[in-house]
Amino acid sequence: MVEGTELPERSRRVAEALGAAGAGGRVRELPASTRTAQAAAEALGCEVGAIANSLVFMADERPLLVMTSGRHRVDTALLAERLGKGTIRRAEPEEVRAATGQAIGGVAPVGHPAPVETVVDASLADYERLWAAAGTPRTVFPTDFAELVAMTGGTPVAVN
Fold first, then answer.
1. DSSP for residue 157
2. I want to staple 91 with a disulfide (CB 3.0 to 4.6 A). Which of 18, 56, 102, 143 is the partner?
3. What Rg value do the Cα atoms of the chain yield, rounded?
4. Using CA atoms, how far apart are residues 25 and 142, in angstroms rounded to an integer?
5. Closest by alpha carbon to 100, among 58, 46, 148, 38?
6. In the beta sheet, which residues pair with residue 130?
7. Using CB atoms within 10 A of its CB, is residue 40 exposed (0-12), middle (13-18) or buried (19+)?
8. Per DSSP, what are the bridge partners of residue 52?
9. Run of H or E residues at 28
10. pLDDT tens-digit profile of 80-125?
């Protein structure tokens, strides 16, 4: 699961979680930050929509990980309605770290201290290969829609 042996600790935890989930992709460290979907797409030579952004929200004050396509934004009011939640708001940086053990810009879909309720944007199914963060702004791994849903236990939902 790991390409190279000098990955940061957070990325090694993600690689271990990928291995435990039976995922086929390997964690890769890139030479530059992939903190934004556009930067990741440029570094990987793919469409921005193939970037599976890991965004953490607070849904009724509980963490909610939304894996969304880099090509659009999450409509929190619509998502709250679809999930039967009262309110959904963007998590504060300290809430993101508490829920995932990772910092904004590098949040992976797996490798968290405890399970986090997860939604996977249905539009990610439009891409054969997806790229997701692997615990830091410079680490990523390839996956596909079915594997992403399976490894996260996520619910496929249109998020916009």
1. E
2. 56
3. 14
4. 5
5. 58
6. 143
7. buried
8. 69, 132
9. strand 28-29
10. 999 999 999 999 999 999 999 998 889 999 999 999 999 999 999 9
Could you tell me the end-to-end alpha-carbon distance of the chain, in angstroms, rounded to an integer? Answer: 32
**pLDDT one-digit tens code per residue, 3-34:** 445 888 999 999 999 999 999 899 999 887 77
Name the packing angle between helices 9-21 and 145-152 (round to 10°): 100
Query: What pLDDT is stored for residue 5 in this prediction?
Result: 55
Is the dihedral angle over the CA atoms 20, 115, 70, 127 positive or is it negative? Answer: positive
DSSP secondary structure, 97-136, as one string: HHHHSS-TT---SS--SS--EEEEEGGGGG-SSEEEE-SS
Q: What span, in angstroms and rounded, lies between the C-alpha atoms of 92 and 39?
A: 22
